[in-house]
Amino acid sequence: MNTNGKQGGADGPLVKVRDLEVAFSVRKGGGSSGKKGVVRAVNGVSFDVRKGETLGLVGESGCGKTTLGRALLRLTPVTPKGRIWYDGREIQGMSVRDFRELRGEMQMIFQDPFSSLNPRLTVGQMLGEVLAVHKVAPRAETKKKIYELLDIVGLNREYFSRYPHEFSGGQRQRIGIARALAVEPKLIVCDEPVSALDVSIQSQIINLLKDLQRDLGLTYLFIAHDLSVVEYISDRVAVMYLGKIVEIADAEDLFANPKHPYTRALMSAIPLPELNRKKERIILKGDLPGPLDAPKGCGFHTRCPEVMERCRSVEPTLKPFREGSGHQVSCLLYDGE
Known about the structure:
Layout: E1 15-28, E2 35-49, E3 54-58, H1 65-72, E4 83-86, E5 89-90, H2 96-103, E6 106-109, H3 123-133, H4 142-152, H5 169-181, E7 187-191, H6 199-216, E8 219-223, H7 227-233, E9 236-241, E10 244-250, H8 251-256, H9 261-268, E11 319-320, E12 328-329
Parallel strand pairs: 3-8, 3-9, 6-7, 7-8
Antiparallel strand pairs: 1-2, 1-4, 4-5, 9-10, 10-12, 11-12
C-alpha cells in the first residue's frame, strides 16, 4: 500500500478511517464441534478525527468501541478491507520499524489504571523505561523529565520512588496519563478513562485532560458510556451500535437534536439536574443481539420503537441528515430528506 498518499497533512484530519473492519473467527456454541462463524466487532466504520478536537465514542457494552480504539493504534488486527491514515500516512502498509517510529505520536489511556501499570516498577522506573525506549530524553536528563511529567499531571515529585499499590485510583490514572504524555504524542485514545473512578475524582481527571489538550495541542478519541461526561468533554460525538457508527455530529447538535432512534433512547437515560423536571424515558426491548446473530437489514430493527417493514431487509448507510450538514445518521427514517 502507498503510505505517502495525501489523505491528511496540515489542513486535513489527523486520523482518517474508511471502511474499517475487525473480524474474529469463532465457533458458535463453543468447543471443536461448534459451527464456525465470523464476529465483526467493527463492521465497515468510516470517520475522521480532526486535529485538536475530542471525538467522543459512545454505545452499549459490546458495541465495538474499545476494539475500534485499539485498531487505530494497531493493537488489534484489521481486515484488508479498511484503511487508516494518520496525519496523511496510511499505517496498515507500514513496516513494523516505520510504525514504531510513528507509535510515539499515538498513545492510549486505559480504563483500569491499576492493571495497566506494572506493579513491580516504581513510578520513576516506569516512566524512565518509556523515555529510554522511545529515546525522548538523554539519560542524564531522565529524572528531570520525569519530575516535569509528574508536575504536569498534578502529582508530587516525592511519588517518584513509590509503587502503584501505594496510590489511589485517581492518582494511578494520573500516572497512566503521565506515561502516555512521556513520548509527546499528538493523538491519545482514552478508553473509558474515568469509569473505574469515584464520581468525585472523575471531574478532576476530565478537567486535567481538557487542560492538557489546551496546553499541549492534543487530539482525543474519547471512549465512554457516561453520556454526561461525553457531552462535557467532546467537540463531536459518534454513536456505535453493533459494530457500526449509526450517528455522528457536533456534540451540541447531537445532544439537542438526536436523530437515530437508538441515540434518542440513550439520551433519554441521562438524568436531569432539576428535581421537578421530567422527561420521557425510552425503554428499549430485548438485549443487544449477539455478533454471530446480527440481524439482516438495519442492525437495530429488532429493538427499534419506530421500526418499518423495510428495516428488516434494507441496510441503511451513514449519510448527512441534510445536504452539507456535518450531522450524519444511518437510518431509513431519513431516506430522501
